[in-house]
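Hi,

I'm pasting everything inline rather than attaching a file, because the server keeps stripping attachments. The sequence lines come first, and each chain or strand is labelled.
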Amino acid sequence: MNLKKPALILTAIVCCGALLAACGSDDSANEGVAVSDPWTRITAPTATTGAVYMDLESADGDRLVSASVPSGVAGKVEVHETVTNGESMDSGEMGDAMEGDAMEGGMEGDAMMGMREMKDGLELPAGEEVSLEPGSYHVMLLELQAPIAEGDTIPVTLMFEKAGEVQVDAEARDAES
Amino acid sequence: MAGSRSERSPMRGSRLLVVLVAAVSALVIAGCSSDGYPGDLNGMTRQPQTEVGNVLLPNENAKSSNATGSLKGDGDGLMLVYFGFTNCPDVCPTTLADLRLALEDIDPEQRDRIQVGMVTVDPQRDNAEVLNGYLGFFFPEEQFSSFITNDKAKLAEVEKIFGASHRIGKKQPDGGYDVDHSALLYAVDSDGVVEVEWPFGTTAEDMRSDIEQLLDRRADQSSS
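And the predicted assembly:
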């Protein structure tokens, strides 16, 4: 057992070093995950929730763990997925279901859309662009402190498993463009 | 939704697929009808058509032109009926923003024949002030109806007539809860017939084209 201790310590040091290096520079973080077109939909004056959308791509694969915004914007932020009948829109079965059941039964009213918090985060497969977009993944803003107006810019901090923290500015607009 | 973007992203592709399948099915079904109109509605049509008849709900928008609280078009117009809730961050505002864009592009004479009705499936949180404020963000005050009933049986009855549904999720520790809901938009004419249903993801352009076509048909019918 005694022999193993130094090895353990060494491993710990190496790991910490790697972690530190990962969050050391913003450049390396941005190389890790490319974030494009971050935007948020303008909200009605009585709405208490909002959503932020963007495209993410990681060359080596990563995971969006969480997101945050200044507390003056929203009280709570979660990574969400909109699902239909409890199923993810991007699952293979959904494609099949759409051709058969959904058109006969599902679409006739019992196709229900809802949201699920992605407690394990959002997987970013290596080299594949993952879109946060209406009807799919989104960063949900809860307890909005004020309506989001056209022309607003919301600073969003994204936390990735490997790339660490990445800051983006989400532009407020009316619709997907 | 440009083609290149669809190819780039699997998510956009699946959303496109939903719309495509819906549109193709609608075409197939509409193509069988014998009313002499080409089956080129983008949304879904049903045979037999859904009839919502003279169903009424309390309309909490005092400035609305719809004083009776009916869920159908007026005269030669259409009512576009949606079942949703205002705490909905993604699905409802997407559809309502697309509908707003669609209506903005329609000839004003035709636009005057359109009413929008939203039935809240979350009356516990959506009171008159909240729902009026929400819909007023998307549409002119006189154009929309804010349908709110705390009578669960009544809401269920209306949902059943339309083929809509919802489910209130478990209360979370902070008091919040999720709501699942069918997310179609129904175009109801003045006979109380659902002429077309648009699934989530239908573009503003497709809605606009369907609305114009339905209104043109209606004008033809009343003039002949």
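Residues 15-30, 91-109 of chain A have pLDDT under 50 and may be disordered.

If the labels don't parse on your end, tell me and I'll reformat.
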